[in-house]
Design a protein that fits this description.
Structural class of chain B: alpha/beta
Radius of gyration of chain A: 21 Å
Mean pLDDT of chain A: 92
Shape of chain A: globular
GO molecular function, one term (chain B): ATP binding
Keywords (chain B): ATP-binding, Cytoplasm, DNA damage, DNA repair, DNA replication, DNA-binding, Nucleotide-binding, SOS response
Helix content of chain A: 40-55%
CATH class of one domain in chain B: Mainly Alpha
InterPro entries (chain B): AAA+_ATPase, DNA-binding_RecF, DNA-binding_RecF_CS, P-loop_NTPase, RecF/RecN/SMC_N, RecF_2
Strand content of chain A: 5-15%
Strand order of the largest sheet of chain B: 2-1-4-5-6-7
CATH architecture of one domain in chain B: Up-down Bundle
Low-confidence stretches of chain B: none
Number of helices of chain B: 9
Number of domains of chain A: 2
Order of helices and strands of chain A: HHHEEHEHEHEHEH
CATH topology of the largest domain in chain A: Dna Topoisomerase Vi A Subunit, Chain: A, domain 2
Distance between the termini of chain A: 64 Å
CATH topology of one domain in chain B: Glutathione S-transferase Yfyf (Class Pi), Chain A, domain 2
Number of strands of chain A: 6
Pfam family, one (chain B): SMC_N
Protein name (chain B): DNA replication and repair protein RecF
Oligomer: heterodimer
Shape of chain B: globular
């Protein structure tokens, strides 16, 4: 490492730790930023500094925002009695991009996994149970991944909410839009067939 | 002519083979050459065209040719029930192996729907006398040839059971958490048990009507404590819940399909397989493979691709001849290895022959 380039090398190493970037793409990105110092690098540095100071978890749902309560939780129009439970903030943002769900969210921060040392207390499941009681919730929609751990977590949450008089539903599983039946696995085809609906 | 067959096989940096292309014509393939030449590696490459870790159960990285270790690739043109598919599976050095079917990324499990592959390897010669693990794997491979989703159910069950075992070891007592994990285990476990029982029923039925030189086996699925096999998800859920205290003391799950075992009796002698001679044990295994092929030909429309490594070991000349006759009659594409060409004498021109050199590159020579 050239000591003259130490700061730049540190920046490249940090960039290479970002999802989707490796050492080569990090070098390209840093070079691009340096070439666009005024219109990209400096504003980016300012923005990173600001977000580092202000970003925080929403105290209610676990979403990431810059206030104690995120925009969704602060919006009274979203209080329609539905909570959509997601594993991670990225799932919440994906749901928001679709702009279909009008209720509120609850971010678990992971899924149950004894192998990874993640139990109910490590997730935000107790907070979810409290919210269901406090916010007049009528339906909890489980939007968890169709993995073994995701489904175990769904079972667990359904069990915790069983006596609370709330409807617990989960996202449908089946043929993705643009998907070809020929390439779907048997389990997906079975799920799709079981969840068929009138045309 | 085989209805399910590899028409072209290409190996790249796979085990001892730097690059090899093998064309086939639908006949069985007899591969011979000295020890260490790379014959079994060809069979292993074909086994990688099905889900799982292949016939040696090797780690993905171990399949790469040394000293290059640049990863490996196996590709094939597969003919399956009148359709031609391009299969490719490869490993580039990190992550898990990837699968392409007709140029599109696909999960490993999708291979099982196209390429039904079963095998016999020398290490299985002791299948009947060693632990139940090997017999379960053997039965599961046969079950997967009938029902490709069996592999997926097995993965779900094993993953959930590892979770439960960790909870037991960590002394977790939350009944809701156990209930959630056990529910997953029970749903997958019931499917596994049913698939295994159906596989045994299909193979037994195929044995009953077959004209064969190989001995029939009376097959049963038993479990570790000789109690009844649990077949339904509800029963399994109850069994897991009832056994929590006992399992916590043991630190592992003591009931479920992971404890089941395949029991075989040499039918005409009424002797357990484990007490038969080495040759008889091998003949029983061959008999099951052939019965599986017959049943699959009836159900699926094609016999599976059969991989027989060192097929001549423990079989006398008459039994070998009978085996070749039955494979040809079934129309199955069998890939067989042996150290010398004389082991395949009775096949005559009913097979394609390949000679593999004992060298650094495992050169393959088609024999006219």
């Amino acid at each position: 490492m050239n000591s003259n380039n130490k700061d730049i090398d540190i920046l490249i190493q940090l960039m290479a730790k970002l999802p989707g970037l490796g050492p080569r793409s990090a070098r390209r990105a840093v070079l691009h930023l340096i070439k666009k110092r005024d219109i990209l690098l400096s504003p980016l540095a300012d923005s990173l500094f600001t977000v580092a100071q202000t970003a925080r978890e929403c105290v209610t749902c676990g979403n990431i925002g810059t206030m104690d309560q995120c925009d969704v939780c602060a919006d009274p129009r979203r209080a329609i009695g539905q909570i959509c439970v997601v594993e991670d903030v990225s799932d919440l943002w994906a749901m928001e991009r679709a702009a279909v769900f009008k209720g509120r969210y609850h971010v678990l921060g992971g899924v149950l996994s004894a192998l990874d040392g993640v139990g109910p207390e490590e997730l935000r499941i107790p907070n979810l149970v409290s919210r269901v009681g406090d916010e007049n919730i009528t339906e909890v929609i489980l939007a968890l991944n169709a993995t073994v751990d995701g489904q175990t977590t769904a079972h667990y949450i359904a069990d915790q909410l069983e006596d609370m008089g709330v409807s617990v539903t989960s996202l449908a599983q089946g043929v993705p839009i643009g998907g070809e039946l020929d390439y779907l696995d048997d389990g997906t085809i079975t799920a799709a067939l079981n969840a068929r609906k009138a045309v | 002519m085989a209805h399910l067959a590899v028409r072209q096989l290409t190996l790249s940096h796979f085990r001892s083979h730097k690059r090899a292309v093998i064309e086939t014509d639908g006949r069985p393939i007899a591969i011979y050459g000295p020890n260490g030449a790379g014959k079994t590696n060809i069979l292993e490459a074909i086994s990688m065209l099905s889900p799982g870790r292949g016939l040696r159960r090797a780690k993905t990285a171990e399949l790469a040719r040394v000293p290059e270790t640049v990863g490996w690739k196996v590709s094939a043109i597969l003919e399956s029930l009148g359709h031609t598919h391009e299969l490719e599976t490869s490993f580039t050095g990190d992550g898990s192996r990837t699968v392409l079917i007709d140029g599109k990324a696909a999960p490993q499990i999708a291979l099982g729907r196209l390429a039904r592959v079963v095998w016999l390897v020398p290490v299985m010669d002791r299948l009947w006398v060693e632990g139940a693990d090997g017999r379960r794997r053997f039965l599961d491979r046969l079950a997967m040839s009938f029902e490709p989703s069996h592999g997926e159910q097995t993965l779900v069950y094993e993953r959930s059971m590892r979770e439960r075992n960790r909870m037991l070891k960590d002394g977790i007592t939350d009944p809701s958490w156990y209930g959630a994990v056990e529910s997953q285990m029970a749903d997958a476990g019931a499917m596994i048990a049913q698939n295994r029982l159906q596989t045994i029923a299909r193979i037994s039925a195929a044995q009953a009507i077959a004209t064969t030189s190989f001995p029939a086996a009376s097959l049963t699925l038993v479990n570790a404590d000789n109690s009844e096999i649990i077949e339904t998800a509800d029963q399994l859920r109850d069994a897991f819940a009832d056994g929590r205290r006992r399992d916590m003391q043991a630190g592992r799950t003591l009931v479920g399909p992971h404890r089941d075992d395949l029991n075989a009796i040499y039918a005409t002698k009424d002797v357990p397989a484990a007490q038969c001679s080495t040759g008889e044990q091998k003949a029983l295994l061959v008999s099951l493979i052939l019965s599986n092929a017959r049943a699959l030909a009836q159900d699926f429309g094609a016999a599976p691709i059969i991989l027989l490594d060192e097929v001549g070991a423990h079989l006398d000349a008459d039994r070998r001849a009978a085996l070749y006759d039955e494979i040809c009659a079934l129309g199955a594409q069998a890939w067989m290895t042996g150290t010398g060409a004389e082991l395949f004498d009775s096949l005559g021109n009913r097979a394609k022959y390949l000679m593999v050199d004992d060298g650094a590159t495992s050169a393959i020579h088609p024999i006219p």
